[in-house]
């Protein structure tokens, strides 16, 4: 019978299999790295959005602190508040969708114990960062509300003080109507000789009248002119402040809803941590109990000399039988 030598064919087959194995391993590694890259890419995108929102919060805080009665930056502040509110709501929705997609395995990832724990830690970190950003936004809104209330109170005090001029102040205004007009022009920016409709204003009484008519007659006219020029600006200012406060209150209400969502998420995480803590305590109790039992058996064996002698006799008998008969 003739035997064929196929040794070289066997070597060639083995070399072919060895050459294929690194390719398969590298392909699996590339697939795993691709899945992890997609997961980390989404997480990094949310993190960058959070950092950009923090930069906007710093700019908003500067605008709020620099805002005064004379330098009103209400449009810029309102626009910035709306932008930040939209960003926070968007990030909250993205984090919830990201977490749900990871649980449903819609985002490919390496599903082993360490990888799942790492992914959950990343999601928890994103939620914590967003919660801190929301807290900063809430603090800035509270600061904005406080400043606006102080400005409103200061304006009311100024208005009540300006409307109750008596005595020497009335005499000075009556004797110097041009000075009063220049002050109104500097505050309002509208010529005193023109009214709001563009028609000429009534003439100012001269100082050549008698004392009773001149001084007492010019002050009511000056006070009336001041109120006519001041009321439209005061009303528009108060309306803008009222609308701004309403917008801030609405924003804080939406932030409260976001806080409630985070509260539910953190409550679930707290329950998970509590279960892990209970499991660790149970394991610790079991290990301690096993150690106590082992020490108990060790003490009973070490103190029982007769048992040691029996064991030694049995070992010697088996050794004797093994040597003599085998």
Q: Could you explain the architecture of this structure?
A:
With 326 residues, the protein is mainly α. 84% of the residues lie in helices and 0% in strands. The protein has one domain (22-164, 175-267): Methane Monooxygenase Hydroxylase, Chain G, domain 1 (Up-down Bundle), CATH 1.20.58. It is built from seven helices and no strands. The longest helix has 93 residues, at 211-303.
How do the SSEs run, as a string of H and E? HHHHHHH
Could you report the average pLDDT, rounded to the nearest whole number?
Answer: 70
What is the structural class? mainly alpha
Shape: elongated
Q: How do the strands and helices of this protein lay out in sequence?
A:
Elements: H1 7-66, H2 74-103, H3 113-162, H4 168-175, H5 177-188, H6 211-303, H7 305-325
Helix pairs in contact: 1-2, 1-3, 2-3, 2-6, 3-6, 4-6, 5-6
In short:
The chain has 326 residues and is an all-alpha fold.
